[in-house]
Amino acid sequence: MRDLIVIGAGPAGLGAALQAARAGRDALVLEKERVGGRLNLARAVGNFPWPAAGQTSGAAIVRGLRRQARRSGVRISPEECRWIDRTGRWFIVRTAAAAYRCRAVVVATGVRPLPPAVPLDPAVARLVHYRWNDIPMRRGGRVAVIGAGEVAFDQACSLAERGAAVTVLCRGARPRAYAGLVSLARSLGVRLMLDRPVSRIETSRIPGVTLVTPRGRTRADAVLVAIGGEPSLPALTAAARRMLGHGLYIAGDAAGGRRQAAIAFGDGVDKAMMAAGTIGKDGGAC
Ligand SMILES: Cc1cc2nc3c(=O)[nH]c(=O)nc-3n(C[C@H](O)[C@H](O)[C@H](O)COP(=O)(O)OP(=O)(O)OC[C@H]3O[C@@H](n4cnc5c(N)ncnc54)[C@H](O)[C@@H]3O)c2cc1C
Questions:
Q1: Fewer CB atoms < 10 Å away: N or C end of the chain?
Q2: What are the tens digits of pLDDT across the range 32-68?
Q3: Which residues line ligand 1 (CB under 6 A)?
Q4: What is the pLDDT of residues 130-189, one digit of tens each?
Q5: Where in the chain is the domain with CATH 3.50.50.60?
Q6: What is the distance in A from the centroid of ligand 1 to the CA of 139?
Q7: Count of CB atoms within 10 A of residue 65's CB?
């Protein structure tokens, strides 16, 4: 039994947990994979106000947040939330091994990447990735990146720095990432191809894949897809869903809106404060 369960330990979940710890709430964070969430993938983050102004890697920010969470007594359990229910005045948060009863829940589960809008047969699918560090790296290995936003270019830079020959295929006439990041990618040798919507990805006898676009074909040993994501929410029963905004809150990237780490962290703090209001009104245990 807890005051608050936070689901997900990315920036939003950590923001919520730190806020709850500061307010003396009995909170528990469930994380199914890696503390820090998608921020771990970021090569250089220049718009997070901590630990120091300036460019720093997402992983370095996560290390700092983790330390702060430990010092604040935040408890993180390596579990995946399967579903959330509401019975009487309690939420029930179910994992494979346990059922937690709590007065409020902050869901901070981020997004799952969108697949490319082309059919992927199994031979192609095994060469298609959504995180740069899942790609088996080989110096000079060719990686085609589908997508032209910040997440696509940041990962293209990470791959290029590790010796990959990277081509970014941009659907439109100009990239959506900010100019400084695009210039950095170019300076690292990343090739940018504009007006290249991918209509097919094919295998051939030569290992690797061919990406077919109306303006030509690009061969690659692996494909990285970075074309956005959709909220990755655990299952909510109808009774739980009715409590959205009244004890059950969605924070960070999962809530929609602009996907930036500082916004997610702040949203986590905000949702934990709203949750505290609910717990208080409910005559809860704190
Ligand atoms: C390559 C890249 C570069 C980026 N660069 C920047 C940048 O420069 N500046 C910036 O501000 N932002 C950047 N971002 C975006 C930033 O990382 C995200 O906005 C931020 O991580 C969102 O935080 P979040 O906590 O909402 O979600 P996430 O970071 O996605 O965290 C969600 C967490 O929930 C966990 N989870 C999901 N489902 C469950 C479940 N059922 N049970 C338990 N745990 C669960 C996941 O494992 C994950 O750890 C970048 C992202 C990427 C991928």
A1: N
A2: 999 999 999 999 998 998 766 667 899 999 999 999 9
A3: 7-13, 30-34, 37-39, 41-42, 45, 47-48, 80-81, 108-110, 150-151, 154-155, 232, 234, 252-254, 259-262, 264
A4: 999 999 877 789 999 999 999 999 999 999 999 999 999 999 999 999 999 999 999 999
A5: 2-112+229-281, 115-225
A6: 28
A7: 26
Instruction: Give which of 179, 118, 122 is closest to 144, Cα–Cα.
Output: 118
Q: CATH class for domain 115-225?
A: alpha beta
Task: Give nearest CA residue, ligand 1 atom 16.
Answer: 261
Question: Of 38, 83, 227, which is best to mutate to test ligand 1, by the most ligand atoms within 8 angstroms of its C-beta?
Answer: 38
pLDDT tens sequence across 242-251: 999 999 999 9
Structure-token pair, residue 185? 């990618």
Query: Cα(218) to centroid of ligand 1, in Å?
Result: 30
- What integer pLDDT is reported at residue 51 of this predicted model? 66
Report whether 259 contacts 280 (CB < 8 A).
no
Pairing of strands 111-113, 229-231: antiparallel
- CB atoms inside a 10 Å sphere around CB 63: 15
69-106 tens-digit pLDDT? 999 999 999 999 999 999 999 999 999 999 999 999 99
Q: Among residues 243, 238, 22, 4, which one has the least CA distance to residue 108?
A: 4
Ligand 1 centroid vs 34 CA: distance in angstroms?
Answer: 10
**Are 18 and 72 contacting, i.e. CB atoms less than 8 angstroms apart?**
yes
Which ligand 1 atom minimizes the distance to the CA of 254? 26
Asked if 8 contacts 107 with a C-beta cutoff of 8 angstroms, the reply is: yes
pTM for the whole thing?
A: 0.94
